[in-house]
Amino acid sequence: MKMHTETIHKITIPTPFLVGPVNVYLICGEVLTLVDTGPLTKEGEKTLIEQLKALGYQLADIDQVVLTHHHPDHVGLAGLFHSSVLIGHRYLRPWLQKDKSFFDQHRKFFQEFYREHGVPGETIQKVLHASSVYMSYIEPTDLDVIVMHGDQLPGHPDWTVLEVPGHAQNHIMLIREQDQLAIGADVLIGTISSNALLEAPMEEGAERPKTLLQYRKSLELMKSLGVSSVLPGHGETINEVDQLIDKRLKGHLDRAQLIKQILSTNRWSAHEISYQLFKEKHVKQPELTFSETFGHLDLLLERNEVKMSKEDGIFIFYNE
């Protein structure tokens, strides 16, 4: 077996988000590659610079930055790397550019989507405002290199790019061929289940991506590849990969069955189901709980275990 000549350093950066600190990774080989950056905060920038310095590097030394997906805790500081090559998925570009027309399209989609699923207008505005604040933790920049599923990571012939949508449409991970080590960002986290967040279609009028179904396929892909260990975006290294994947997949089915039970007592909108599941958490974090609920409704619909109809302009789910 070929010996690894590269070293990988984990850098942990504080975030202002509920998920807590984020891990970014420095791959030191012939090319110096940073995977993700941390959020656009003074504390995040200070920590990143200090930890790079402790390893003997400055921002200008980084040859390239791989951005795993568009969430601000992972890409917020990408704009700092003026002399580095920025690498990511094609769907990352409008998020990173903070493209106004793209953001307007997203806002328009969710205003209608939430309304049709019974979410009150006040809650819709709260969710949209929270999304706007969240995206303010990204400094606008652009990609230099677009990578796709199966591509070799530039400068690192041992590493392959995998597209793993679900948590985000533009999510990629890296896998090292010799030992199946993965740098996974938010695809698999040890302490919490990654939320398959609702997203609008990338093109106006296209079908909404069914993010939980995508996420389950991404987990099954990881299992089929025999990933040995995962360096995650949050928390500690995951070594029992298959066991955790099985736990996550089973958790999805268990949650779906709970929703099915809720629907056995009444006909509900997705908003009402989300409140039944999460109670006060749904009031405080509707954007997260609604994604969780709707992903599992997609799963139940896919399995023909619940039905959906539109009544007085609102989609209603039922189990008959």
Automatic annotation (TrEMBL):
Name of a matching Pfam family: Lactamase_B
Transmembrane intervals: none
Entry keywords, A to Z: Hydrolase
Protein name: Zn-dependent hydrolases
Ranges in coiled-coil conformation: none
Boundaries of every Metallo-beta-lactamase domain copy: 21-234
A molecular-function term among this protein's GO annotations: hydrolase activity
UniProt cross-references to InterPro entries, sorted A to Z: Metallo-B-lactamas, RibonucZ/Hydroxyglut_hydro, Sec-metab_biosynth-thioest
KW Hydrolase (keyword) present: yes
